[in-house]
Automatic annotation (TrEMBL):
Family: Belongs to the G-protein coupled receptor 1 family.
Pfam short name (any one): 7tm_4
Keyword Translocase appears in the UniProt entry: no
Annotated organism of origin: Sarcophilus harrisii (Tasmanian devil)
Record field: transmembrane: 28-55, 62-81, 101-123, 143-161, 203-229, 241-262, 274-293
Name by which UniProt lists this protein: Olfactory receptor
Keywords: Cell membrane, G-protein coupled receptor, Membrane, Olfaction, Receptor, Sensory transduction, Transducer, Transmembrane, Transmembrane helix
PROSITE patterns: G_PROTEIN_RECEP_F1_1, G_PROTEIN_RECEP_F1_2
Domain of life, source organism: Eukaryota
Topology with respect to the bilayer: Multi-pass membrane protein
MF-aspect GO terms: G protein-coupled receptor activity; olfactory receptor activity
Single GO cellular component term: plasma membrane
PANTHER family linked: OLFACTORY RECEPTOR (PTHR48018)
Length: 313
């Protein structure tokens, strides 16, 4: 090993995730906050998946997409949270090289998939509100499956490219990742390679992913709002908007927190960690609540399931 330390990624066998740099007392507090939040992620999203699979009234395209959204939220949160929770009680806070690769792969896979799925859900709401009589014909089961499969395919391709360009970099003496999980930006910071090409590829992929999905969502909602405004009664307008209000909140929550994280200046890494916390754990916790509290069908299905169990007992 030369003066520059480890010169090739094949010699790296682990990284250190330093996470939040706070006193030991606050580490314990953060451990319980992460544990409670992740427990709510598991409860809310697994509960939503079970409810959609068991309630016949939720056997529609909208809830098919929602069930996949819950699975994705559960998956990318689970790629990050367990290791972060364990590290709060650990002194070395290490993650193996293979573990870091796997964590970045699955996190990138599901977060990109969610972006495309939200675009598919916007299209679903566009058809439901703008062409309600043709909804069943246009949003067929096969089309829904194709949209979901396409979302996963795009997420998988993006993840493979991101992981490939990230872990072909060389790493020098420092293996300390200034975050509570393996992400591209902090990994690039500890590389001794020229990361210009990596950054160009990363930004290009981000543009390819974000611009089309945002365009689909924006165009869909322009038509949706235009159609809703043509409804004469206030009650009819509120009923129409209630069918897409939850989706709009979820989209705003995800893209808002992701934008906040990547627009946070490098001189304030702790603020970036808070933003990362929001979209890796807090957003997956809130999404089931948003859909369950604002959606009449979900509330009725939940009541039926709970009362049915009480009657059985």
């Amino acid at each position: 090993m030369g003066d520059r330390g480890i010169s090739n990624h094949s010699e790296v066998n682990q990284f250190i995730l330093i996470g939040f740099q706070v006193c030991p007392e606050l580490q314990i507090l953060l451990f319980f906050i992460f544990l409670l939040t992740y427990s709510m992620v598991l409860l809310g999203n697994i509960g939503m998946i079970v409810l959609i699979l068991t309630a016949s009234r939720l056997n529609t395209p909208m809830y098919f997409f929602l069930g996949n959204l819950s699975f994705i939220d559960l998956s990318y949160s689970s790629a990050v949270a367990p290791k972060a929770i364990a590290n709060f009680l650990s002194e070395n806070k290490t993650i193996s090289f293979a573990g870091c690769v796997a964590q970045l792969f699955f996190f990138a896979l599901f977060i990109v998939t969610e972006g495309f799925l939200l675009a598919a859900m916007a299209y679903d709401r566009f058809i439901a509100i703008c062409s309600p009589l043709l909804y069943s014909a246009r949003m067929s089961r096969s089309l829904c499956i194709q949209l979901v499969a396409g979302s996963y395919f795009c997420g998988c391709i993006s993840s493979i490219l991101q992981v490939s360009i990230t872990f072909t970099m060389s790493f020098c003496a420092s293996h300390v990742i200034d975050l509570f999980y393996c992400d591209i930006r902090p990994i690039q910071k500890i590389s001794c390679s020229n990361v210009f090409i990596n950054k160009v590829v990363s930004y290009s992929l981000s543009a390819i992913i974000i611009l089309p999905t945002i365009m689909v969502i924006m165009v869909s909602y322009i038509y949706i709002i235009s159609t809703i405004l043509k409804i004469r009664s206030t009650e009819g307008q509120m009923k129409a908007f209630s069918t897409c209000g939850s989706h709009l909140m979820v989209v705003s929550l995800l893209y808002g927190t992701v934008s906040f994280m990547y627009l946070t200046p490098a001189s304030n890494p702790e603020l970036g960690k808070v933003a990362s916390l929001c979209y890796t754990i807090v957003t997956p916790m809130l999404n089931p609540l948003i859909y369950s509290l604002r959606n009449k069908d979900v509330k009725e299905a939940l009541k039926s399931m709970l009362w049915g169990k009480k009657g059985f007992l």
